[in-house]
Design a protein that fits this description.
The protein is α/β, with parallel strands linked by helices. The protein contains 16 helices and 8 strands.
Length: about 400
């Protein structure tokens, strides 16, 4: 593989993107800083196919990123490969209002190949290539310039290793017949709605006890206000006001701005400054949350009853056994919420009753709930038996 190092010339970047646009896949990684900003600060993009790899400095004055962004979000012929790519995809979405597509995440693919639910990059490289990744540059300040050759080499290594792992992983998925298992998951992480950060929905990030419409209405107004403040100042949300303080203000709203001096988590200066006034305006303008917007009641466990809860526990045991038997991460097969819904009698809209999940797990789960399948201990080992067979 040819390693170009750091691309710092617009013509070289355009030529690189032109060549990569003919590749069946490209591996992508980013380095960024977000500790002190609302928007993640993109510091480096690494990209590779099977033949060449390079890093691009988006902070370089005059650099034209358009050819690279076109390749990432508008070229449907090239598969984009990430590892645990959620934050990388978010950065690309922030730049383009689009997500890379089609895409493939090796961390998710590893779930189908028995490598756990969240295998780290270093362990992935070790397991597939037998290479110990040097972690020395992991905590680099990627925003500082100039970048050292050591840093650039470290960063490019992330995509050169991935370009060797992906074909091996793809071949194993084909031989095991599990490639189709991942289609739904890959489309889910490519959905732009996951990265939109709509201020109107910001309240859903905040944990709060209770379901009173007036409290949730204030939480929605306050979360929207904080989102706008944080974006405008390019500060992390928690630097404006922490979640627990936001929830406390929604539950116990101040009557006047001077009351803010007594709110835990706020500076006394909020009692008289402009940001405190904007907070009070958000509280005063808040409307009770409409019935349509109210979060659904978590009626799964309460609706189960003691017997239903036992059935849900049996389904979780079945999931554990089946995950072990077919060597797949249990989270890829089914979520706990779906098992509880199935135990409570729900049948519509459950992914475990569709497609490959039904074949691998859902059919037996349904049989267990409906009395056609049972647990038995045979020769000291836990087995599943058909009740009609036992009869």
């Amino acid at each position: 593989m040819h390693i170009h190092g750091l691309i710092e010339d617009n013509a070289a970047l355009a030529n690189l993107c032109s060549r990569l646009s003919q590749s069946p896949f490209i591996c992508v990684d980013t380095e960024f800083m977000r500790e002190s900003t609302f928007w993640p600060e993109l510091c480096l993009i690494q990209i590779a196919d099977e033949h060449e790899a390079a890093a691009i400095d988006p902070m370089l004055p005059g650099i034209d990123m358009q050819p690279l962004l076109e390749l990432l979000v508008n070229n449907e012929e090239v598969l984009k490969v990430f590892h645990a790519g959620g934050q990388d995809i978010e950065i690309i979405y922030n730049l383009t209002a689009k997500t890379p597509h089609p895409l493939f995440d090796t961390q998710i693919a590893a779930m189908a190949l028995g490598q756990g639910e969240q295998i780290g990059y270093s362990n992935l490289v070790d397991s597939w290539l037998g290479i110990q990744v040097d972690k020395g540059a992991r905590f680099t300040d990627w925003a500082r310039r100039p970048l050292e050759t050591r840093q650039v080499d470290y960063a490019i290594g992330d995509v050169t290793h991935l370009a060797k792992i992906f074909p091996k992983m793809l071949e194993k998925l084909k031989t095991t017949g599990r490639g189709a298992w991942l289609d739904q998951e890959m489309e889910r992480i490519a959905d732009p709605a996951n990265y939109a950060n709509d201020p109107e929905l910001a309240w859903k990030r905040v944990r709060i006890a209770g379901r009173k419409p007036d409290v949730l209405g204030r939480l929605k107004a306050l979360a929207r206000w904080r989102e706008i403040e944080a974006r405008g100042k390019n500060l992390p949300r928690g630097r404006i006001i922490k979640d627990e303080t936001l929830a406390d203000l929604a539950s116990h709203p101040p009557k006047k701005q001077s009351d803010l001096a007594r709110v835990r988590g706020l500076s006394a200066t909020w009692a008289g400054n402009d940001i405190g006034a904007r907070l009070m305006a958000a509280v005063e303008d808040a409307q009770p949350m409409s019935a349509e917007e109210m979060p659904p009641r978590d009626d799964r466990k309460p609706g189960l009853g003691k017997e239903g809860s036992l059935v849900a526990d049996l389904l979780k045991l079945l999931l554990k056994i089946r995950s072990r038997d077919i060597d797949v991460a249990s989270r890829l097969l089914a979520r706990s919420e779906e098992l509880e819904l199935l135990a409570a009698g729900h049948r519509e809209g459950l992914t475990i009753l569709e497609g490959w999940r039904f074949d691998q797990f859902g059919r037996d789960a349904l049989d267990l709930v409906e009395g056609r399948l049972a647990f038995a201990v045979i020769n000291g080992k836990l087995r599943m038996t058909r009740t009609e067979d036992a009869a």
